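Incident log, entry 3
Record: PTHB1 N-terminal domain-containing protein (900 residues)
Problem: checksum mismatch between cached and fresh output.
Input:
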Amino acid sequence: MSLFKARDWWSAVLGEGEEFDQGCLCVGDVDNSGSGHDKVVVGSYMGMLRIFSPHASKSSEEVPADAQLLEVQLQNAIIQVELGKFVSCSDLLHLAVLHPRKLSVFSISGTAGNVEHGDQYQLKLVYEHNLQRTACSMTHGTFGGVSGHHSLCVQSMDGMLMFFEQESYSFGRFLPGFLLPGPLVYNPRTDSFLTVSSARQLESYKYETLAVATEAETRQDQDLSVNSGGKRLTPDWVFVLGEQALEVCVPSFSHSSSFIFILGERNLYCLRDNGQIHFMKKLEFNPSCFLPYASVRDGTTNLLLCNHTNMLLVYQDVTLKWAAQLPFVPVATRLANFPELKGVVTSLSSDGHLLCSYMGTDPSFFSTPKVDAREADYEQVEAEMKRLQKLIREATRTQDILPKSMTDEDLTVKVAVSSSMDDPSQALIPDIDGLLIPSITVQVKLKANSVIQTSKLTVSIQPPLAVTQDQFILEPMDIGSSTSVKFSAFLNGRYLPADLKGEITVSYNSPTELNPTGVPKILQSTFTLPLALVCVPSSPAKTTKFKITLDTNQAPVQLSSIFSEFSIKSEDKDGNSLAFQFLPGPKVTLLASKTSQRYRIQSDSFEDMWLVAKELVRRFDQYFSKLGVKDFKKSFSGPLPLQEYFLSVDHHFQLRVSAKQYQDLLSEQAVQFRAIQRRLLTRFKDKTPAPLQNLDTLLDTTYNQVMALADAAEENHTQLEEAFVRLRGSTQLLVLLLSLSQGLTPEQTAILEATLLPLLQDTPQLGWEESCDAAVSHLLRTCLSRSPKDQATSLAHTGAQILGLPRDTDRLKRHISLLCDRIAKGGRLTLASEANVQVPAQVQHLAAPGGIEPIPEVSGDGEDLPQEATKFIKKKHSVKKVRKGRNTNGSCPVLKCILL
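Fresh output:
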């Protein structure tokens, strides 16, 4: 047990699921017993009002029945509770309870019990005020210097101070320049109210000033000039804090009668009554609440300060005197006197932990009890050992690196895409240039084969496609139970997606014998949206800018049988041509030859042909597979459209360069803006201010330039996202044409796609150009190198270059052209080639630890790879021969060359 832990004297847990805040705790003799002992009053946002009379208990887990005096469920949430003399015809203490739309004053009375159940306490409503505005906080005191009774002041959420003199409403005033409510406290020494405005400054308003100020019914009325005798409301003094305040406190003890304490988010302030600062302490933690109290030393004040690291700190002005650990983060703390102990620290957490503690160093006398000596049951231990060994063998009985999927999965996921579009459409954009945006429903069915807990389903889809809901929290499922969720997918942008595939990810916990809480698992499933979601049938275009032709080895097929849903509305009755009008604007035409096995795809946009080409290849495979054709082949015999592809690369690169330029310009303008602000602040703080010399005009101009640059940078970022999606589409089209022209296997096609598309999206730290260049260069050095010697040399190259935005795209385009050329000449794409290459002896020596550094790659074209592993220069290096002993088989001595 820690020596400096706050000693638990009495504690309680108030309800379940209730919330509490700063104003929900107060202490005092609420039942007017006259004994001088305090009771603890707690109100919650759920409307529960509780009154406790704590006393020492042996167990902190259960609250003794006689410690709780009263528990009442009120109709409204309780924002704040205060004790004071709030009834005009009585000098007794009464309880004021602030609700969002009501202020109630209660009396608490106790009746002595005649049996062992103890005294009985009753809550009686004395009077209440219905509020016209939503309340935020309240304060009380002897407003106007009236002694013997307390008045109440309620601050509303819209900045109005409402004053109540016991049973009657006095007046209301709006605070000037109000935006958000802050702490409110009454200073009885100066008869003024202190509050922290949204401008992060402490403001003081005298009660007399508030009383004679202009009457206003709304916040707008206070800014209008009226002919009444009132005056415009202005603060008596203002102190700039520069941060939001958590609490403001005005201590009432005599020797510190002129101090005001403010707890900020990062600082603690102490001011005098006239607004002059007395001291300030910078806090190195995040505070939660504080409480000033009387000190034994004259001229100083003690403070209880709680923070978010569960610490209770005691300060004497700015000096830390004590620190104790609390079991929770308090939102309110008070000092109370109980019959058995004086000066008890009463703390309340946001979730209802109420703790009465004291600070001391009394040690704990707990000692660990001795374990009963008993003989071990060897038969039971041996049985447990065999069971654990069996579980270990079953868990390690695999020879693969990746785990194999079990035949009986814990969860089965099936995704079904509707065959028809939604009516009405769920799309956020109703139409694009007159074309209606459709949506389609996707249903996900889940069936549990075991107990499933805390499951969450996430939908990911390619932009600019969107869904109505992308996350679902699923209920726990028993064995054999099933559930389903539905969502709609639609186009949410004015450009085409790079892929129509989506992914369903289900994360869940599956309890086991050894882990009852559940083993976290993830299950993924994919689905494909129809092409009709992003396009409609149209009339074929005769002249286009870009064309690609695909060849097959089977007889010509009518396009109407392949694209049946588009041929119904097509104008071509022969079925030899189709046109796809994409919703964002471009049109793609598909033509079939009547005599040959060729099919042409043409459009004015290169990257937009990708979706039609992919769909055509996929439907060809399905069509001939149903016919039972096993030797169906498809190919591309034309030249690769590298120049068209490089247009997308250059466009994406220029937008990245523009984004970097906008960032640099914004940094420069921000530096200039801050410099002008400092100059202006220096002028304004000077007692004899000099002329501004057009600094204000320069500040406005710089501000306008910063805003214009920010808008331009945001627009460029939107264009960059669109350009990257188009670049992905054109890259996938290039991969498809290259795989068809060279007959690549699915594994080789996957390697090629991973090389040319290493990123799913651009990031400020890493972009597509440098990532793709590094991946292509790696293939050129390894499996696509000219000779095994060059490939082995690249394995010894240990230096790694730092990826960054290149100066231009010339090197990247040369490397991509070289990649396509080497694949066309018979290069084999494989990731296992490095392990199959026999590395020369001298290269092995260079790659070994302590060898010389390899010669760096020659900058420029990818063909200029190093031809020799290294070059020994004997002119300036001495060679030392070290003679080793003979081997056991009688071989010759080994000579080892060491470069000095």
